[in-house]
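Incident log, structure service

09:12 report received: a user says their structure output differs between two submissions of the same chain.
09:20 pulled the input from the user's history:
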Amino acid sequence: MRISRRDFIAAGAAVAALSRTAGAAHSPAAPPAPLVIDCQSHLYFPEILARMEKRTEDPVVFTKDGERWVRMGPWLRRVLPKHMDVHAKLADMDANGISVTTISINDPGPEWFGADGPAVARECNDFIAGVVRHHPQRFAGLCVLPLQDMRASLEELERCVRKLGMKGILLYTNLAGRFADEPEFRPLFAHAVEYDIPVLLHPAKPITSDKDYEMISSLGNMFDDTIALNRILLSGILDQYPGLKLVCPHLGGTLPYIIGRIDHQVQVLKRGPKYLTKAPSAYLRQVYLDIVSPLPQAMRFAYEFMGADRLLYASDHPWVDPKLILDGLRSLSLPKADEEKILGGNARKLFRLGA
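09:34 re-ran on a clean worker, output below:
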């Protein structure tokens, strides 16, 4: 039987295709992408922005040249449509391989709204719970509390945990000028331990606000992280509530880099509290830090000081591109198991995701 040249070529192509298919079937599958959980991400709540547009005292929202701005003293922040857009956030999550985000409102928090604080907290928490309800596989909610009213705060916390399924508390680094380590706020930590949920610090209007050179976000927020966290360490709260799960953003502000000085002041020069049972640096190692920093060297120092088990991936979206933080972490070439803990393994346990 004679075979035409055309049939010969076609048969050869079919055999080659079959060989490729068989080879692909036997080739090892690509390893699954690591779980990535973003532990710091925010949305503006449109109704709260509308409420602030009616206010005459800070915090207020005003419009200039067709753009909306939030004003808190000298601190001005532009509100873009993306900052309120859940679908834009989901698109950025997908583009960066982020599986789950723990989501919270953008500050200001309820403590800035006086007697309206409890109502503001409920509105904000219902908004976040609604986002989670519509996208339960992608988001976990963090609640805010009206801490100028502790009774209302504890009632709202119970509602958020038991009815809304919130996975943590967003606690501002200062509460309209006061600090969370002060005695009247201690019940918050007791209930966080009771509910077994983490408390995540986050800067609000920093007490070190200075309008010159626009340093409020670049330095003011970092110093607020530092002061709030150091006050909690020195207050004895981690001895009083040893089960407390505390998270500080932005690699702990500046505290990890000056904690040796704190140790020396407290332990050698005896300047500071006398009731601590261990060095301040030992308390610091009980805290979780998120890795929001554009500087990989800072991430490496935190990794070497804290260990992989105490670090959490976070982006600070929408203010920061998630890729910036992911690329910084991956540039460190950490052991695979440690990188996977930081990317999502630690957060999955901390927030009891899937529980």
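09:41 both user submissions now match this output. Likely a transient worker issue. Closing.
09:42 reviewer note: The radius of gyration is 24 Å. The longest strand covers residues 37-43.
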